[in-house]
UniProtKB/TrEMBL annotation:
It comes from the Bacteria. PANTHER family: ALCOHOL DEHYDROGENASE RELATED, RETICULON-4-INTERACTING PROTEIN 1, MITOCHONDRIAL. GO terms for molecular function: oxidoreductase activity. It comes from Cellulomonas pakistanensis. This is Oxidoreductase. SUPFAM superfamilies: GroES-like (SSF50129), NAD(P)-binding Rossmann-fold domains (SSF51735).
Length: 303
């Protein structure tokens, strides 16, 4: 938990009472909780005015675990069910980096038996972001798609979903991740000054869809890379909507979408890359690793 905004040094491990359970929530014993860049942004105070933080605050929205207690009206789940959730609530306070967490049923879905807990925990926010941004972009079979930050948690799932949809996928990433992108079915392009020319060489007529998961260069180069009538969907910059006529996407909890992603993962259609796993008492170190900005796939904390 943390009691003030700041860097990873404000995090500390504490004992707290078991979480309060509401009528439409379940209490979950956490098997794994995944980290996301937004966690660090929230902890630094970066979303004040958009989301309220109530101190002391426990970080984390992604979780996989087992239901140990059910609310008054939760027919979707029973004690003993294994679930995954994008457990985002209206305020930042009681997150998933804990031994137990109260999860609203509207944010959860059952975890397929064959999907490991660590991979399941890495799926909700990243998977929902990828799925919902692709849907909003209007991506269709046969499209040529440019995925920015394609080796990251969101981008790697977006690549796999786009390939599964029958699109040709080009992905930006550092050169050390190019073989990884090829294994996912994408054609890699390096970040940097040569990005525009390299991407144009692969798609001379332009891209039907640009998916921005990093901002900066992704937004600046989009007008030159989109074909006439093409669409950009961004999770980082509202200019994609306001200036480029595309979509600005803020991921939403959605049980049906999450169940669909879990099924795809269980069947091997998509896979979640877990790059590192940390115990709960090393959560601050896990965030330090995340905040280097060089993570491939997901970082997971296991109580």
């Amino acid at each position: 938990m943390y009691e003030e905004f700041g860097g990873a040094d404000v995090l500390r491990v504490v004992d707290r009472p078991e979480p309060h359970i509401g009528a439409d929530t379940v209490v979950v014993r956490v098997a794994a909780a995944a980290l996301n860049p937004v966690d660090a942004y929230l902890r630094a105070g970066g979303l004040q005015g958009l989301m309220d933080t109530h101190f002391p605050a426990v970080p984390g929205w992604d979780v996989a675990g087992t239901v140990v207690k059910v609310g008054l009206d939760t027919p979707e789940f029973q004690v003993g069910d294994e679930i995954i959730a994008y457990a985002r609530k209206d305020v930042v306070q009681d997150g998933t980096l804990a031994e137990y967490v109260a999860v609203p049923v509207r944010t959860a879905a059952k975890k397929p038996a064959g999907l490991p807990f660590d991979q399941a925990a890495g799926l909700p926010l990243a998977g929902l972001t990828a799925l919902q941004s692709i849907r909003r972009s209007g991506l269709a079979e046969g499209d040529t798609v440019l995925v920015h930050a394609a080796a990251g948690g969101v981008g790697s799932i977006a690549v796999q979903l786009a390939v599964h949809a029958g699109a040709r996928v080009v992905g930006t990433a550092s050169e050390r991740n190019h073989d990884y992108l090829r294994a996912l079915g994408a054609e890699p392009v390096a970040y940097g000054d040569g990005l525009l020319d390299a991407a144009r060489a692969l798609a001379p007529e332009g891209f039907d869809v640009v998916l921005d998961y990093v901002g900066g260069q992704a937004i600046e180069t989009a007008p030159a890379l989109l074909r006439a009538g093409g669409t950009i969907a961004s999770i980082t910059d509202a200019r994609a909507r306001d200036e480029l006529g595309g979509q600005y996407v803020w991921v939403r909890p959605d049980t049906a979408d999450l169940a669909h992603l879990a099924d795809l993962a269980a069947r091997g259609v998509i896979r979640v890359e877990v790059s590192q796993t940390f115990p709960l008492d090393q959560a601050a170190d896990a965030y330090r690793a995340l905040e280097t900005g060089h993570t491939r796939g997901k970082i997971v904390v296991t109580p």
